[in-house]
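Checklist before submission:
- one chain only
- standard amino acids only
- sequence pasted in full

Submission:
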Amino acid sequence: MAADSLGDELHRAVKLALDSGEAASLREAEALFRRYRLRIDVGPDVLQSPTRQAAVLTSVNTARRCFLGGVKVTGALDAPLLVPWRSCRTLRDAIIDLQGTVSTDADETTEGIPRIVVGDTTRSYAHAPFAVRATFDGWRGGAVPLADGIRLPEQQEFTPAGVLAGAMAVSEAFQYVRGGNPHAGKRVAGMSLWRLEDTSWLTSSDSGPSLTYLPTRLWLIGLGHLGQAFLWTLGFLPYAQPAEVQLVLQDYDALVAANDSTSLLTTSALIGQRKTRAMARWCEQRGFGTVLIERRFANNFQVDGDEPQLALCGVDNAAARAALELVGFKRIIEAGLGKGAQEYLAYQVHTFPASRSAKERWGSAVTAPADEALLAQPAYQALEHAGVDRCGLTLLAGRSVGSSFVGAAVSTIVIAEVLRMLAGEHSYEVVDGTLRSPKGREAILSEGNLEAFNPGSTDRILY
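Returned file contents:
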């Protein structure tokens, strides 16, 4: 297989086993990931909570892309779906649509498989090697060790916190099965999307305000890992009139098999389709209006007054990032992820205008060459012996490692920034963190750089 074709096929989480040297071949790496399985136990109170349902669906959607042995969901699932997902009517339908397996298996210790619990449960997890609870209240969300008996009140509904809790729970479970982080599943892992600088999110009494307004006019730059995560979290917001939402979708690529490993709205059935068109169909099924732009983002145009003035950017391209402030947007929220086997859990979020411009941040950035040490790993040597040339191997080694739970978690930070903006509240210039060590997050408030404006808003449904 040609290196460029292999790069488009390569599962971005499986690449971890290639880069670490633990797998001697691509086949061996894939076999390793097929041994990873996860179980999600759903309590009956999930059926009355949109936020808990968002946590369940996020857990299923992100986990099936990295636990290749399968995701099994148990519990009372035959009840109306309270968050929109395609044409699904029940939580069971949505779980199956997202490629989870629904089971009535009551075995409490199924082969040591890690567990995620959402909602009330009467089961015993005394013998489970790993069990965490996804929990939330208002703008706070995360995963906590089930054995600690900790749980947030889960009274104030806020679906981005459900997305965050589900993503953090899968992150902890994935780090546990991968090894290398002895704290995974034994710590509290979460944040307050209202006060990102607050590391006491679990004990804080400030859960943030109830939602009043929701965004209607956004320009999305990039529709891969992060762009689709933005849409996932945006789609769960409780729009009373989704037809009022108008999105500009900008990308120039087609979907490839590798996108299915990281991108929350991609399935194998969509491979080969333009990202803009596939995402437009999803948006329109949600009830949102779309405009498509199928070209690279650059400073060769100007946004006019009738177009969205608020941009969400999720591209891994320094030239595009450097041009963000040069086309006329009034506000930009940009997110980026770490790339390598040690950094794929890291993220940064920037809001512009800022004390340092986008051009200053990325205008002189140079693409780093692939780490030559990777090419000495057994799996890359096996590919070379199979006929992949040195140039092709270098390109392949330079592809990013990634997992969709990281993008899902980061999307909640980005969408929360939009929601605070609509409420006329505080903004963060930079948020810098990693899911490897969630408490190590740094959040810097914007000071005097942002002019207030209304990017377009509409009412929400009252739960």
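Reviewer check: The first strand starts at residue 38 and ends at 42.
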